[in-house]
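Q: Convert this sequence to structure tokens.
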Amino acid sequence: MVRGFFKFLLALAAVFGSLFLGLLGWGILIRNKAVSEKTRRLSSRMGKGGLIPKIAGTRLGSVYFNLAVLKHVGRKSGREYVTYLSAYPLGDGFVLTLAYPHTDWCSNIMATGKCTLTFKGQEYELERPELIPMSEAWAAYPPITKLFALAGGEQQCLWVHKKQVVPEPARALA
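A:
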């Protein structure tokens, strides 16, 4: 009975270890422009249906690399877009990982200066985007995620700050 349980645990560890190493290897391959573009297209297709839109921005989505929902406006079209990505709290805002060398969502946010992020069931209005080097964002990343960022060769990320709410002045009683 005990031996069977240990065999089960060993098999489970082997499966998770294989998945981890596979993802880590893919992170290294993504440095290649052709692989990066194919991965971006596949991610875009997966985001249109299936499990990702259902769990992104929820507490369950936070288990999978802090999967969040980013809403932003196109810099040329003015159309609203939805992007599923990893977000990590940092300071007064969030760090958004730039997994690919060029991302339209990042260009859109830099141009408009604002976006909305749904993270762990809460919606945040964000503003004042700034590109920062990964070295400044390391504090936000959990250790296992740092491995993937290193393997993928990410050099910078987008830091967006929570919108500052200015309270209305109290009205004088008449």
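Helices lie at 2-29, 33-46, 51-55, 59-63, 104-112, 134-137, 143-152.
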